[in-house]
Specification:
The chain is α/β, with parallel strands linked by helices and about 150 residues long. Helix content is about 20%, strand content about 35%. It has one domain (about 1-145): D-tyrosyl-tRNA(Tyr) deacylase (D-tyrosyl-trna(Tyr) Deacylase, Chain: A, 3-Layer(bba) Sandwich), CATH 3.50.80.10.
Length: about 150
């Protein structure tokens, strides 16, 4: 599972001209589910996103977690994160999980984040979406549950 995590002042996702989800300060998480991902990957990354200390403390240092900062989460499924552009000029999506399993794992991830406390909004799985963000910093990280077959350290 891969996540592009962005610290945001605000974010929203629109589908067919209507807002599907909107958050104030917190995180926008673009979530890609890859073949071989499981519930442990979803649980691991949910904890990582909520506990990562990337919000400023009183001295302006990245020292607070999402929970400590009182932030919200906008989680958006994005299968293109499982794509590869290593060969040729057209992306290959062979590494993406099949839609039904990917939807179930995305839902598991969202449920795991909610269970840790923050308010969570989402886009619409498999829909064409427009994601609007105001990146705060900018602060952006790429998280993977299984880089090279392992996990991010820590």
């Amino acid at each position: 599972m891969k996540i592009v995590l962005q610290r945001v002042r605000e974010a929203r996702v629109d589908v067919a001209g209507r807002t599907a989800g909107r958050v104030g300060p917190g995180l926008c998480l673009l979530v890609g589910v890859e073949r071989g991902d499981g519930e442990a990957d979803a649980e691991y990354l949910a904890r990582k996103c909520v506990e990562l200390r990337i919000f400023p403390d009183a001295q302006g240092k990245m020292n607070l977690s999402l929970a400590e900062a009182g932030g919200q989460v906008l989680a958006v499924s994005q299968f293109t994160l499982a794509g590869s552009v290593r060969k040729g000029r057209r992306p290959s999506f062979d590494g993406a999980e099949e839609p039904a399993r990917a939807a179930a794992l995305f839902d598991r991830f969202v449920g795991a984040v909610r269970a840790l406390g923050p308010a969570v909004e989402t886009g619409v799985f498999q829909a064409m979406m427009q994601v609007h963000i105001v990146n705060d910093g900018p602060v952006t990280f790429v998280l993977e549950s299984r880089p090279g077959g392992g996990r991010d350290e820590g």
